[in-house]
Structures are given as structure tokens and as C-alpha cells.
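Could you join me in thinking about how sequence relates to backbone shape in a protein? To get us started, please write out a protein record for me. Would you write everything just below, so we can both look at the same thing?
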Amino acid sequence: MSKISRKNWALIWILGMAGQICWNIENSWFNNFVYDRIAPDPSIVSWMVGVSAAVTTFCTFLVGTWSDRLGRRKPFICAGYILWGLFTFLFGVTEKLPRDPLFIAAAAVVIADAVMSFFGSVGNDSGFSAWTTDISDTSNRGKLGGVLAVMPVFATIFGAVVSGVLIEWMGFFAFFAMMGALVAAIGVFAIFTLRDAPTLSPKRDERGFFRQFMEVFNWRTVTGNRELFWVFLVMTVYFIGFNVYFPYITIYFVNYLGYDYGMTGVIQGVGLLAASLLTIPAAKFIDRGRPAEVILAALGFNTVGLVLVSVSEAMPVLLAGVFGAGVGYILVLQSLTAWMKNLYPEHQRGQFEGIKQIFFVCVPMIVGPAIATQVIDRLGVEMVVNGVPGMVPRPNLFAISAALTAVTLLPLLVAGRLCRRRLSNERREK
């Protein structure tokens, strides 16, 4: 049993929150930036999300293999955060590009987002995520998973409330510059404070980097980690449904319902903050080997919440809906984080962060927004946004997302059965 030190808990919060705020800016405000400054075209958002997801996944495989071979996470965390911040600032420069022809401006934001995401993956997905696995064990990963799960919530609250106010006050360019500088500064801070886990050592395949890189694509990797891959499938199905609505939720509240950024932040912030309180009791169930049961309950909250958002525009119902969807998101992410980390092969933690990105980022962020684009184009409402005609989502987007996320139950049944069998065997061996 290893205890996470106070210093490492502080670094988990500082690095984790900085990373999640930066991801939230990309996943939410970059999309609003496109609608407001480029064109209200959901296909641009879909391309931006999909390309950045593919780049992020490839980077996590590449850097995960590299850090496993090197036996170090710190250089990747520090350099990644510094460059992540720099390219967050540079994304705002695309605002200065002409919108005629539209293709040039659209291609520029897609490329700029992909470059930023690459370095975000180096620092956060590849380096930081593997580091948190290195310094934890099965006795504290439920708590760790809870902390890592509420960070996106706090980042979303910050993004919805604080970011909305700041953007209205200073504009997109100055906001991206300020947040980029903050993330880069935290990367510099990590140089002087972060240490790799003392148990971490180089894991080299003497046949070379490429052979080690390709090892995770071997079918034996799947058959030898059967439960883990079913957990990955749970993650994929859930986050496909999640990415149908999440990139467009602020666009829906602002452009369809008519709220300003500040009120949109209050609605999302209050619901998500209340939902985050459930991570504390959930951690106890997860550490007792019951993550599947927690996810099952979360799916119920998630489905009801999204249905409520889809059937009413009344403030109390919207708050209840965001709370339900928030509970689903937080508890699913908390449970899956702990469940996966307990199953990662010790000598391939960095590489398995890359495999996770296929199921968590690449597939969901390509398929989800692609589905959303079709729904918005076919069933949305035509509006003029900042002088440009385009399509805005209707409430039906949330109902479709609810139906898709409910399908998560199917792989969950298999993953839960494998988990119970493994824990039963472990108890008998003791």
C-alpha cells in the first residue's frame, strides 16, 4: 500500500486543474469561438474535434511508449504544459484571418487546434495521467479517480461562469492569451516541484522503439487484458453519446434558448457543482470493487437528466437536467478512471494511456460530433449568428444523446461480470 504525499496531492490538483481548464477551453470555447468569429457551421466544429482527437491519440501512444522506455514522466509533463500554453495563445490569432474564402479560416482553426492538442496530450494525457498511476495503487485509486473526475466539472464551472464573464469583458483573443500564459507558467512551476515516482524504471524492448510501440496493437494484448478492454468499450459507448451534446451545449443555451454566457454558466455550474458531491460516497464503493454498480446508477441519472433538458426550457427543469447529466458524467469518469488504472500492466502504463485515448478521445470525439452534425443539419433550426446564417441545435439533440448513452449498459454487463470473477479469484488466492 502506497500513500500519496501531500505534495503530490497538491501537484495533482494544480496540474490537473490547469490541464482540465485548458481542455475545457478547447472543448467548449473554441467551438463558441468558431460559431462567433468564423461561421455558425457545425461541420467545422466536427472537423476540429475529430482531427484534434486523432492527433491526441497518436501523440499519447508515441509519448507513452517513449516515457515507458525512458522511465521518466517529468520532462514530458513540463515541456508539454509550457508548449500547450503557448499554442493556446496562438489559437486566438486565427481570429485575425479573413473569412472569405471560408475554407482558409476553417482549415486554420482545425490545424491550430490540432497543434495545441498535440502538446496538451504530451503534458496531460501522456505524462500527467501516467504519473498519477505511478504514484497510486489499488488502495487509493477510488479517491484519486474521484479527484480526477471532479476536475473537469470544476473546469466546466470555471469555463462556463468565469470564462464567460472574461470573454464578454476582454474578448476571445485576450482570454486565450491569458489562459495560455497560466498553463505555461504551471509547466515552469512543475520543473522545480514535480518528481517521478521512485518505483518508476525504464521498460525497454531491446528490439527497438518501433517494436515496443507496436506491441500494444498485438492481439495478445487484448486477450491478455480482456476485462480492461471491456472497460474501454464501456468508455467508448458512453462518451460517443456524451460528445453528441457536450460540444454544442453552450451553443444551445446561448443561441437557441437566448441566455447570455453568464447565465449559461450559472445553469451549468450549479448543477455540476451539486453533482460533484456524490464522488465522495462513490469512491467508497469503487475501492470495494463495485465500479460497475456505480456506473449503472450513473447511467440512470444521465438518461433522466438529458431527457429533462430535451423536454423543457424552464429554469428549474434545466437545472435538474444538468444535475442529472453531471452526475452521470462525473461518476462514470470516476469509476472508469479507477477501474482502468487498477488493470493497467505495470510495464506499459504509458502505452495503455494511449490505448485509452482511442476509446476515450479518438472514437467518441470523431463519431459523436459527426452524429451531432447530421442531427443539427437535418433537425436543427436555421439562425443568423453574428451576421452569418447557420444551423443551431434543437432540444432533440439531448434526447438522441440520452438514447445513445443508455446503450452503455450492454458492455457494462460483460465488464461487471469479469470484474466480479477477478475479485472472487483474488479473494480465494488470499
